[in-house]
Amino acid sequence: MMKVLHFYKTYYPEGFGGVQEVIRQLAQGGRAYGWEAEVLTLTTGRPGIIEAGGCRVHRVKRLFKAVSTDFAFRALAEFKRLAAGADLVHYHFPYPLADLAHFWAAHRKPCLVTYHSDIVARKLPMFFYRPLMNRFLRSIPVIAATSPNYMASSPVLSGRAGRVRCIPLGLDEPPRPAPALVESWRKRLPERFFLFVGAFRYYKGLDFLLAAVKDPAIPVVLVGEGGGEAALKAGAGGPANARFLGALPDEDKEALLSLCCGLVLPSHLRSEAFGLALLDGARHGKPLVCCEIATGTTYINIHGETGLAVPPADPAALKAALLALWGDPALAARLGAGARQRYEKLFTAEKMVKAYMDLYGELAFGSRNAGESPSGGL
After folding, report:
1. For the chain, is the Cβ count within 10 Å smaller at the N or the C terminus?
2. What value, to the nearest 5°, has the Cα angle with vertex 246 and ends 244 and 250?
């Protein structure tokens, strides 16, 4: 087995999100291609080595957090040790501590970075961080962007086109939820509803969504939690049209995805760089509603083909899109079928894993086909 080292600020079971899910999919899928994954991450709990998310996780005690970045000086030494034993290093941007670790370790191992997002709304910290960021990205032979939309719209990636490759993110097909669980949720919720799944973060546009569904009342179910939840609930239209279910296990989310009449992701800022939640809806053949913010959201959701895309921060436009799907089941069904077809064509976990394993092989062995699995593919 070849060994790849991932370095990111959090990982399962403490961190849940798009980056963590990408690492998990690569760790689990990469074994068929002869790649064993390890993850270096920080923790607020007990440090040490655990097995989680399909790989061995080395956890270093977090020392402090500043400008949304976890720091631990011990992580620099640990990264140097682990990189020495790895065949390839896979960074996940943005994470400034990884930039520092890269130069601290001074390793000569093949490496790449997945560019998940620009750093948004951090003007003063960016003034000081930008020289390190630019030096780090110049030193990386291949930068993997998650969508052509983001490649074109990112001011950081646009100047590095020669070393940027597009590898869209993907999701696997989880087990179907138990029929009894689906039926239990069916009895507790409106017969028809739109679904939001995700953390309640500043860029998710949830206040615009709640304004859009308030009058006339359109049932919406929100799965997730985060800062500002109390204010969102206070501004909601009431239990008849806005249900806050909190964080739920994956099986419950799958049940809700199977029941909803559409998946809505109202993110209005570029911090929503891809939108994995849209893939959840597409997997289930649901029509998608999102905002056009020049990121991966409208690479997943093609207006008029897989769902509807509206201007950001515009409750009236968002309401019109939801009402269009609500009042035209035939349109919703056609767009939902298109979403499922696009998922199968571009966004399966198998396609993402294969693309990364080919890239791993190219970097480690200088061959584009060195990433083939023993069986010739997934």
Report:
1. N
2. 120
